[in-house]
Amino acid sequence: MDITKIIDPLNDAQREAVSGPGRSMLILAGAGSGKTRVLVHRIAWQIQVQGALPHSILAVTFTNKAASEMRTRIEDLLQISARSMWIGTFHGLAHRLLRRHAKQAKLPESFQVMDSDDQLRVIKRLLKDINLDDSRWPPRQVQWFINAQKDEGIRASKILDSGDFFQHQMKLVYQSYEDICRRSGLVDFAELLLSSYELLRDNADILDFYQQRFQHVHVDEFQDTNTIQYAWLRLLTEGRDNLFVVGDDDQSIYGWRGAKIENIHRFQRHYPNHKVIKLEQNYRSTGHILKAANQVIACNEGRMGKELWTDSGDGEPVSLYAAFNEQDEAYFVVEGIRKWVNEGGKRSDIAILYRSNAQSRQFEERLMSTRTPYRVYGGLRFFERAEIKNALAFLRIMAHHEDDASFERVINTPTRGIGAKLIADIRTFAREQGLSLWHAAETLIAEKHLSARAANALAGFLELIGQLERQTAEMALFEKVKYVIEHSGLIAFYNEEKGDKGEARVENLEELVNAARAFDYDREAEENLGELDMFLTHAALEAGEMQGDAFDDCVQLMTLHSAKGLEFKQVFLVGLEEGLFPSQQSLEDLGRLEEERRLCYVGMTRAMEHLTLTYAESRRLYGREIYPNASRFLREIPPETLQEVRMRAQISRPLTAVKSRAGGLGSEGKYKLGQRLKHAKFGEGVVLQIEGSGAQERVQVNFSEVGVKWLMLAYAKLETL
Prior knowledge:
CATH superfamily of the largest domain: P-loop containing nucleotide triphosphate hydrolases
Helix content: 40-55%
Oligomer: single chain
Strand order of the largest sheet: 11-12-10-13-14-9-17
Number of domains: 5
Distance between the termini: 84 Å
Shape: flat
């Protein structure tokens, strides 16, 4: 093979990385700098030029997709099979090791790998067996604790008793869990890595075999490795100088799930003969986008330092939009999408990126109302999420006792002592008697077919629903929703869930209250359905089929964490406000704040041609209205790369606008410059500017007490003086 095929497509820094001598190397690969190409061409160079055997290649990635792509590209470049190379994820390669050496790893040859849900079910059964109250010891919190210990390489027997009751109890549960898995031949994801590490550590002959075999070890996304993964790599390369890692300290955004950015610095200590090469030429984004992103990330301390550049020109400045509120923000973004599509662009080239899943609802509803296909990437859409479906099921069973699906969904969620056997008995009786589950439950209690304990638990559930019905009968829709999610126990239930997941579920439930508050109920048009029924119908339609997933050309909605590794021609990075992004929890923690800044950098560098940043001057989020300051990240962007934009074109009237009998807004021309107005919260003020029309007409008012504010006329309740 002609080696020019390996070298010629590369820039100077890439060539240096690919053709470097056989020693450990740290490739700092900036966003869009061609890191996968470097890894593939490095392996090809080692085989074709340095004479390495394919059998001696080990390449570790973080996703099966990345591993498959690497394997395919190596085969295309070299025109040989990559079958003898070990290319895969950490978990996949660890599993391969354990299958080959199950006996030495003290595992049965037929051991079974559990996914996260299987693991959680084992933990739930365990807690019942040892009579631990899962309201005090939530199964997901136990799962998080066990996995976190394994990620640090810690067995239950190695946890020192510090006198802390929680830790002592968790240690006992962890030990019992280990016993169950050992007896049952079960292995969870974290165990794959820990067991394979222990296999190598405790069996010198096996370790020596693989050290001799894998003469060339490569790692992708090195900044995302955790403690046990790095320890595993060090064992395989111990006493050798053959570890080639590609990573970017500026894109380390998974600290909350155990990734250790410190591993990049440890690498430099543990492999003192290493060489560092920076890949700074970017092939994705325009000059203005890169300059803005560079300046933001430069505010972090302790970076290894690099600056992305491109020879493709500056492109358009980064757009900045100050929205009146979250609804105005959604209208602006969707109008930008419609303009892009009308000018011939593809929806699939557009991404809306946000910090919190709870932010998606406003964009989803606006996209729905304009019939714009979309999909939520890497997660469920708002009304499809389990916590939202649980809350809606409570509302449905309150309104319709015959709704068997809702009855079964919440009869033991949150848990209230109604077990699988009792539920099965209710199902059987309902089927035999031709009754709904609700009426079957009532009959079983009335006719004393159940034990006292089962009858009391079931009666407690029926009474809870009855109480929720009675106590919310006269409430407004949003008050009803708020009352139900609180008094059903859902908020408390998810508050017990450890880590970001439980917090996100609670945020989503609080966002459901906002959805109910903003719901536009047209009593005249829907005279046969009450407001609650209409809201439930709206939610069902939102969660139905043909809402975006069925279309290939869809706008992509995702969290910033989900966007890692992706790219789009047009990116809307929304919600850039203090307390939201950066998150409230990071504001007093420098380490977390710097990770938030890296997350912003990742989001900005997803954009290829157009980047739009938005923030809202007021926002209703997590059940409360706030008036945040613009994010510090916006202040870190060079002004010469930014262009502030305002809505110019008239767009369709928002669903929540108050309609007159004639169907018009009745607000155009109502206010004049210099006119005095009164706002319920801001007090009295004077109109400084008026802009926009229709739904986007807004006024700038200088209030005596709070200063200058932009107010959207479709929402602001203003009184003329």
